[in-house]
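Summary for the lay section of the report: proteins are chains of building blocks that fold into shapes. Here we show the chain for Nucleotide-binding universal stress protein, UspA family and then a coded description of the shape we predicted for it.
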Amino acid sequence: MGKPGGRRPIMIVVGADGSESSFAAVAWAADDAMRTKVPLRIVYAVERGPYDIARFPTGVWTDLKKRTSHQVLQDAEAVARERQPDIEVTTEAIEGDPVVILREQAHNADELVVGSRGLGGFAGAVLGSVSMKVAGHAHGTVVVVRPGEKTVHGEIVVGLDESDNCEPALGYAFRQAALRGCELRALYAWEVPARIYAPEIAYEMEEMRKAQVQAAYARLAPWRERYPQVPVIEDVRSVHPVKALVDASGDADLVVVGSHGRGAIRALVLGSVSRGVLHGARCTVAVVRSP
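The coded shape description reads as follows.
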């Protein structure tokens, strides 16, 4: 969903593991498959740890794996079909590390959806290790869904800056807003350095802020032209971007952030803003990686 004229999604992939969080992810993915009119693929990663090797003989483990996989995928498919009966749904169990498998699946999908915490998550944890690693490693768009979201606010929030790297996130956010018929809040956060005291320096910083805000919001023009039906709220806040986006998430259905993938090493990690929003947001978060 990158720049205007880009390709439409070919498939949505969602990870399932039998947890409440993963079923919430399946429901979200089913809704998005219906909105975008693409097939939904449900994947269950079967991981055999060292303790399982010691506890179960090969034959017993194989049988247990088959039965567990079948049940998890059957339950997940039932959630998807109950949510959206008319979508095309396929399922598959794949043996291996969940992060590696989901990352590989992301190459064949326009969107990868995961729950915020799986069965292995610690009580009270905000974000599970699998969802964080997938969001940090997978290419394309990764959507992290939190369970228990029922209130519809009718608003999507997208983080905005003055760089080219926010373009894919803008494209995704505008398209989601158009599909849902909701408004889009384009949020630009500016934090003034704490050590600025001299009036002349403060004035220069304010002028710089104005210039950067203008440059950032100029990026909205082509997207507004392509999606004239989407109401856009320009929101400028003098606070750290993570706090601004987390605060805005309380009244949003979805927060969209970019992840600046520059080079082979940086493409494997999340930026500080994306990571902070994933940990603190009170709604579903979409991390859209720039090429």
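Put simply, here is one thing we learned. Strands lie at 12-15, 40-46, 89-95, 111-115, 141-145, 155-159, 183-189, 232-237, 254-259, 284-289.
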